[in-house]
Design a protein that fits this description.
The protein is of the alpha/beta class and about 400 residues long. It has nine helices and 26 strands.
Length: about 400
């Protein structure tokens, strides 16, 4: 019988899991342990609305802190977990306290990848993954004229849009030969490249960093060709890595995330993983996936709750994502990696179009620009065509 559930992490997956357990009838103890001093909160606005409008941190909370107590979900915040003692089924906190569990869920999320160049530890160099990152970054931005962003992925481009709307000089450095190369097609990359350049962003492609320069505080970015760009601040947006260290130290299998089965279970029958830190098998896409998105955090948390409640259901989603840049809304369904054909539908010039990605004739992904109908239709068709593909 499951009487004690401990959830490590206090993000989207943790919040959904606690709710799903209560809704499913679990009467025992549910405890959420988070290393930040905040109740579970949403992260996508950090690089957009929260960064620009500066609301108080509790505006991001899914529910007021009192709500979790009313639900019987106890919050242990501002303290990291030091270790997992699997034989004793104990979680050891950084302050020495121990929490017993019948079921343990790793919802530890991700952290920003480091920039491996000299000067990366200078003042004025930031990443953006948490509320406190924004609270540190925002005052520095207010005093900055020249902003350099390393990485032309979603976070880098979203922050670039906010900075240009504030009238700041922005340079984006991207090591690849096009923006968003890892996640989308040349058509979509060209659209966003032209969008940002048209708003005054300086984009440097195939840019190689040699060092960050400055005396105690960053003042410039030196490229491999010898050129130095002025920088009042530098935002590092070169991706994220899963927080799977605790799992690995406890002897659980990890491979770019905590390895779980189709029911979100690790090899230890008492331990599960959900959200950005979890690496799960997808029959739909024929490989293991680790997804960093709201959809995955919510739906995989529901799968974990079902398994804990003794009603396991295999998890194999059609992922969905979104990005807001200026007045443009990009909505994505499915995963385009490995596509062999891409077709544009609609009017690119009017910024209302979609790109459909196929593999062996099957629709595997859709990217839609300001076209909610194409996005929703694409999600339905991807679900049908990938489910019927018989991949394993």
């Amino acid at each position: 019988m499951t009487n004690r559930v401990v959830i490590i992490g206090a993000g989207q997956a943790a919040a959904q899991l606690a709710l799903s357990l209560r809704q499913g009838g679990l009467a025992g103890e549910v405890r959420i342990v988070g290393d930040e001093p905040y109740a579970p909160y949403q992260r996508p606005p950090l690089s957009k609305k929260f960064l620009h409008e500066r609301p108080p941190p509790d505006s991001l909370f899914f529910r007021p802190e009192s709500f979790w107590h009313e639900q019987g979900a106890e919050l242990t915040l501002g303290v990291a977990v030091g270790a997992i003692d699997r034989p004793r089924r104990q979680v050891v906190l950084g302050d020495g306290r121990e929490l017993g569990y019948d079921a343990l869920v790793l919802a530890t999320g991700t952290r920003a990848r480091d920039l491996a160049v000299p000067g990366a530890d200078l003042g004025g160099v930031f990443s953006l993954r948490k509320i406190d990152d924004v609270l540190a970054l925002r005052p520095a931005l207010d005093d900055a004229r020249h902003v350099v962003i390393v990485g032309a992925g979603y976070i880098g481009l979203e922050v670039a849009a906010v900075m240009r709307e504030e009238g700041r000089d922005v340079t984006v450095l991207e090591a690849e030969d096009r923006v968003l190369k890892r996640v989308t097609s040349p058509v979509m990359s060209t659209f966003f490249d032209e969008l940002h350049r048209g708003r005054g962003v300086a984009i440097r492609l195939s840019a190689r960093l040699a060092a960050l320069a400055g005396n105690g505080r960053v003042a410039g970015v030196r490229l491999a060709d010898g050129e130095t760009l002025p920088a009042d601040i530098v935002l590092v947006a070169v991706g994220a890595r899963p927080n799977d260290d605790l799992a690995a130290a406890a002897g659980l299998a990890c491979a770019d995330g905590v390895v779980v089965d189709a029911f979100a279970r690790t090899a230890d029958p008492a331990i599960y993983a959900a959200g950005d830190c979890s690496c799960f098998p997808s029959r739909r896409y024929g490989r293991r996936l680790r997804l960093e998105c709201v959809q995955n955090a919510i739906d995989q948390a529901k799968a974990v709750a079902a398994a804990i409640l003794g009603q396991p259901v295999a998890y194999d989603p059609v992922p969905w994502f979104w990005s807001d840049q200026y007045e443009i809304k990009l909505q994505m369904a499915g995963l385009s990696g490995g596509y062999d054909a891409a077709e544009s539908v609609g009017d690119v010039a009017r910024a209302r179009f979609s790109v459909e990605y196929r593999s062996d004739g099957r629709l595997i992904a859709v990217d839609a620009i300001n076209d909610g109908r194409a996005y929703m239709s694409g999600r339905r068709r991807i679900a049908q065509e990938t489910a019927a593909s018989g991949q394993s």
